[in-house]
Amino acid sequence: MWNVIKKDFLTISRDRSEVLVLLIMPFILIAILGFALGDLMSGTNGIEEIPVALVNEQDIDQAILDLEVDLRDQGIPNEIVADLIANIEDTDPATSFINFLTDPDLDDILAVSTDYDKESAMLALEEEEIAAIVIIPEQFSYHLLSALYLDEGTGSKVELVVQNKEQIQAGIVENIVQNFNDHFNFETSIIQATEGAAVQTDLDTVSFGETVSISMQDPVSAFQYYTIGMAVMFALYVASTVSANAFKEKKSHVFARLMITGETPLRYLFGKFTSAIFLTFLQLAILFSVSHLLFQTFENKNVEFWLVIGLITFVFSATVSTLAMLITSIALRFNNDTVSGIFSGGVITLFAFVGGSFTPVEQISPFIRELGNWTPNGAIMTAYLQMIQGFEISEILPMLYRVCGMAILFILLAVAIFPKRRLT
Amino acid sequence: MLEVENLSKVYKSKKAVDGVNLYLDSGESIGLLGPNGAGKSTTISMMSTLIRPSDGDVRFKGKSILKQPDLVRPILGVVPQEIALYEELTAYENMKFFGRVYGLSGKKLDNKVEEVLELVGLKERKKEKIKGYSGGMKRRINIAVALMHQPELLIMDEPTVGIDPQSRNYILEMVRQLNQEKGMTVLYTSHYMEEVERLCDRIYIMDHGKVIASGTKDELKSILSGEETVLVEVQHKTNALANQIASLPSIQKVTEVEKGFKVIAPKGENIFTDVFRATEEAGVKLMGLHVQTPTLEDVFLHLTGRKLRD
């Protein structure tokens, strides 16, 4: 077996065009995309803290006094009014909101400053010193509480001012504020429905919606993203390279020569499998190592991280090898190497796109992301990224099982298609 | 040692090999002679267990190798017509790879590689990649690989195609040594009759998938014992002269050659006067008339009406 692996390694490593495709090209693309799109993906440190100005325009004491007067005007007994006011002082919505924004859990996402008034905040926004202004209006708590206890008015809203609504940072702040609003409205609805009785809601108070929850994991840097993206894409070229070499062996009668030595067609096919595993694993190991050495792509990762990365790499290498077997089988069966050309010229590019090698496809369409997770490279890329984000191995396993399933399917097809009779 | 019985191979509607019978005794050197497309390569592919015949059988020491190919494979060395080597690897790496495939390892493998490289005369250039070799050197390594496991039977398919005379001579001498000094049984296919004539004890002549004649060189040439070959050398060749010679009653066959025409006529017939008159009538200057010893080329020409390299 080692004899075949060594021969394939020497044959491919001495072919400059193969080395260019398998190692140089992905590395150039990692460097270009890592540097060029680093800012878009929030730089090498992931998403930085978003500077936000919090402008509180309301006077809570005045709001409570106003509400107390309104409650008495409604003819509510003094004792009940006193209870309600005492309760309001503890559960002021504006205070809850300020506490929510300044919660330590959001420290990694938001850098909230209360030093601004409305005017200076607008100026800072124009100067792009801050990404958004959150304004608690003058009568915010009063209007909210009037709506809640007196059934008067339509409540109140927190105001959010952003420079450009399309900015990712603005979107995140908007999402957080919206989430608080929804949560608050939901809880007050329950209070109204249960006439004030306390209930335990199922809402997770740190669930800020899709965008934010992703960011709560360890951030993925552009270099990490494109190292993985390019590596899984170019690893697929090993399959077409191995199959093209197998076809060359048949054309040059080396295959026939091997058969005369007593080699069997199926053993030959599985020889290609082992060669491809070795070559893919080596290619990925080189790409990851060089990327790390030059760009510190995987800094501060522990042994467990590397063991799981090794496992994912092995699973992917085996899957690429089964693809190599399948393409070899088709090429030898039909005595035509067009299939290797189609695979390297079209299928890989398509797989790479839907798998997310070029761009995070979930930003384009969740459907493409789901579709991509049914390609070997897409599913394995998800597994790698999950690992980088700090997911537990139990959360990564389903993707690995899926890829293993694909590998088994490819092997079965390859064995079924491969011509098992003597060949010339 | 090896017997071929009524071997046939049909590809779609084309019969590539049609009922071939032949045999090889241990230590013999057998030639398979025929033009391109005669069915030689298909025949030896079936004998090498590479392709399954449509009909017939191949027996090794009495047992069919179609059912048990592993009977013959360990003692078989096959030199394909194509350069079946890894061009990106050196000669040494190719030989080590195939040696290991044949089950050799360690010191035994190293010694064998050196021994065979010595035999093919490429020891000094073993570290060079095959793709940098000349055609003749590639052919020699192509043969060397087939010798790595010391086969008892060496099947060579046109091993000298497209190489220079010096390399060809080297290869022919090597094959002679393997057969005569090392006792290796050789089946040598070629469309170069002089190679087969030089190397082989017995010869099978094939055309259109069939064996049309077989025997020793002398036996084959005796086919022409009642005839003689005359070379008509002329200053310049014309179609009119060729037609005029062919129309002479005593002439059996006329073929154009470099310096004039080759004429086959029954032995004892005096054709010289007729040929002389024909050249005079055609206005062509006669430069010479030579009676030649028949060659296998003449035999083939006699049997098929075509030259071997047509």
Briefly say what this structure is:
The complex is a heterodimer of chains A (424) and B (310). Chain A has 424 residues and is mainly α. Helices cover 67% and strands 5% of the residues of chain A.
Please explain how this structure is put together.
- The complex is a heterodimer of chains A (424) and B (310).
- Chain A is mainly α.
- In chain A, 67% of the residues lie in helices and 5% in strands.
- Chain A is built from 17 helices and four strands.
- The longest helix of chain A is centred in the middle third of the chain and has 31 residues, at 265-295.
- In chain A, 38% of the residues are buried.
- Chain B is α/β, with parallel strands linked by helices.
- Chain B has two domains: 2-220, Rossmann fold (3-Layer(aba) Sandwich); 225-304, Alpha-Beta Plaits (2-Layer Sandwich), CATH 3.30.70.
- Chain B has helices spanning 40-47, 91-101, 106-120, 135-146, 165-180, 193-199, 217-221, 239-246, 272-282, 296-304, and strands at residues 2-11, 14-24, 29-33, 55-60, 63-64, 76-79, 153-157, 185-190, 202-207, 210-216, 227-234, 253-256, 260-266, 286-292.
- Chain B has a six-stranded mixed β-sheet with strand order 6-7-8-3-9-10, with helices on both faces. A four-stranded antiparallel β-sheet of chain B has the order 2-1-4-5, covered by helices on one side.
- The interface between A and B is medium-sized, with 22 and 30 residues.
